[in-house]
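Explain my protein.
***
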Amino acid sequence: MKFESVKKFFYGLKVARTALICILGVPMFFVFSEVPANFIGGFLRVDPSYTGGLVAEEFVDPIGNAGERGGLVRYTVHQPVTGARWQKSAEYWQVVFDFNGAPAKNQETVCIAADNMAESARPWNFALKIDGGQGKVYDSKGALICAAEIYPLNGGEQVKARIPLQDKRLQPLLASKKTWHYFDFGGANPGLELTKDADTLPVEASMVAKKKDKGKDAEDEAFIERVKKMYDAAFNNNGTSDSSDDGADPMLAINAALEEYGKKIEQNPNDYISLANYGSWLAKKGGESSALKAMKLVKEAYVYLDKAAELCAGKEGEIEVLMNRASVSASVPEMVFKKSEVGANDFTKVASLSDNKVLKAYCHVMAYECYKKCNKESKAFLALQEAKKALE
């Protein structure tokens, strides 16, 4: 009976949600389409042993090549995990590589020294070597200790590596307070030839879990809000104010704009400025329509937006076209349309085309939000760093 009651509850919830969509139209549909994951996430707490352990240290651009394609953007060191259930290894240690796009060579080596492990002829005690998606751990003499678990995500932009700690040669890591990490990417025999005479500086990582930096999160949120306000102040006095502000029917302005740009497209089917604006207004019309009609209108909008983007490449007006498509892509729900990455790429392109600091910062901030929506964490992280650099 309890199971049947639960089924009835969720069925009732589904019916209520459908009714709301029908009554309130597409704006509420857009909102509700993002609700399930947030609703469930609010009640679930995943044990750290399933996700890699608590974070101990996080390094931004540790080797100074984040601007290069494939460059290491962020390196995260977790606290060693013990007693993990339903994992390949009950004791393991996770490190995570976040790259700026997939690296050109899928070869990464990190040589690691720990504060309580015996000193060797080299400045490191063991090396984690990743090659072609396979991971191996070697001691300082080059002897194989064990295989590592390698989990490439987002097309190789993020790589999670788990080092099993069952071998006695690695177990001192469980009690280690500090570690030192030397990076060597893409070499013929990466990392394993690193000696004490090598001119390579490591990053120093704690092995103790750090508390979540709520202040840092709040700082980032405040920065994002500040950039958006700067953009509004600089660019929103361009005669495109929202007609809904004065109580008028927004559909009147939308239909008038569609008629205007539609006539221009009839006169010149390759007028990419008009194509982009027509597509953008179609998407706005979707925002004032029922759910089913909205999906049809947004899909149609991208026919115009995509054609405009193709025609404008390298020409005057490219920024206006890309901003239209980027803004639509940032507004529509990712769960339904899967356009967040398109928006992020367009915003990033606009930032590269403009010399205006405010516009560059705004575009990187919007790219950050788009990448977050489609779970491109590495690119999101890099976009936010670029936004901060733009205002320096």
Notes: The longest strand covers residues 144-153. Residues 2-24 form the longest helix (23 residues). The radius of gyration is 26 Å.
